[in-house]
Every structure is written in C-alpha cells, then in structure tokens.
Amino acid sequence: MLVLGLDNFTDELLGQLLEWSPTVITTPQTAEKLDAYGIKIDWIITNGADEVFQSDVKLMSAGNGNLTDTALEYLTTYEYPAVNIITDELHLDDYEPYATRINLVIFNDGKKIYPVNTGFSKWKPAGETVELLAKPKNLQFTGLEKINDQLYKTQTDGLFSLHFDDLFLFIAEGL
Questions:
Q1: Domain check: are 63 and 133 in the same one?
Q2: Facing residues of 122 across strands?
Q3: How far is the C-alpha of 118 from the C-alpha of 116, rounded, in Å?
Q4: Are residues 58 and 94 in the same domain?
Q5: How far is CA 50 from CA 38, 44, 60, in A?
Q6: Are residues 102 and 120 in the same domain?
Q7: pTM for the full predicted model
Q8: Considering only CA atoms, which of 160, 67, 38, 150 is closest in space to residue 59?
Q9: What are the b/e assignments for 116-133, b being 16+ CB within 10 Å?
Q10: Predicted pLDDT of residue 29
Q11: CA-CA distance, 157 to 122, in Å (whole number)?
Q12: Which domain holds residue 28?
C-alpha cells in the first residue's frame, strides 16, 4: 500500500485495506498521521533526511526524483503483483508508465480509480456511474448510458463492458 495522503480518506476504508497486512510505503508528511493511528510503516520515501517515527522503518531515497515513481519502481522491481494507492492529489501521468506492470488501484477524492484493458466487463447495480478519465479511441460500450463524454451510468443491474483501441484506460467509480 502506497499512502501519499490521507486528507480525504475514511478510517473505515483504511482499516479494510490494512486487513490484508500490506507492505506500507508512505511519505514523511503522511507517516506522522499513520503513526498517530498506530499503523506500522515499512518504508518512508524521502528526498532528504527525515525523522523516523517507528523502529524498523526503512528509508527509500528518491534523490531529486518523484516520490511516486520511486515507490512504484521499487514495487515493480521486486515483483509486487498489486498496489493500493491512497492520495490527496491525482496525477494520472505518474501512474501511466506502471499501468501494464502492476495492478494499480488508486483511491482519491471518494473514488476508486484503476486501469482497464479493452474487453473489460464488470457487474454493477443499476444507476451507478462509471467515469472514463481519458477519451479512448473507438469506444464501444454495453450496459451503460452516456451522460456526457466522460460519465456513464449503468442501465440495469448486470454487466457492463468497454471496448476501445488504446492499450488501457483509467476508469473511476464512487466508493
């Protein structure tokens, strides 16, 4: 689990994600909040010398680089199959290079965001929304009603599917 910010994230959902006993990687700013919750931190990504709040916490140097890139490079290098990312600021450009290398699920602003491949299908109740975070080439869909260029609503309880010509597409669902 990569925790980049917790400002808009519920304690309940955080607890659910921690039930899986993940490796917890965070930033120095967010480490203080996690420590206050009593959550064990495995790695702190840093650009300099930062205070360590817990014993056995390892520091991951980002040098002058991007903290997100540093963490995702580590996870992909050591062949982690998936990562849940909690962030206050969403910059999809940071995640695009990793979308085909690791199973990403990004939690931001009350949404669950993840990349899907063409032919993706999922069951959802009627009336729920699915947001496309880019405009895919040759989009075809079933089980959805178009609200606008990016927002779609499920027509009935059941499967919806997306077909497009891009390598992948980030979609968002409400939590």
A1: no
A2: 160
A3: 7
A4: yes
A5: 19, 9, 11
A6: no
A7: 0.93
A8: 67
A9: bebebeeebeeeebbbbe
A10: 87
A11: 11
A12: 2-109
The one-letter amino acid at 158: G
- Going by their DSSP bridges, the two strands 158-163 and 140-142 should be labelled as antiparallel
pLDDT (tens place) for every residue of the chain, 175 residues total: 999 999 989 999 999 999 988 999 999 889 989 999 999 999 999 887 666 667 788 989 888 788 999 999 999 999 999 999 999 999 999 999 999 999 999 999 999 999 999 999 999 999 999 999 999 999 999 999 999 999 999 999 999 999 999 999 999 999 9
Residues facing 82 on adjacent strands: 103
Q: What is the DSSP string of 24-68?
A: -EE-HHHHHHHHHTTPPP-EEEESS-----STTPEEEE-TTS-HH
The Cα–Cα gap between 26 and 31 comes to: 6
Answer yes or no: do 156 and 82 share one domain.
no
Q: How many C-beta neighbours within 10 Å does residue 160 have? A: 21
Using the 3D structure, point to which of 59, 87, 109 is the last residue of a domain.
109
Tokens describing residue 89: 């600021």
Amino acid (1-letter code) at residue 55: S
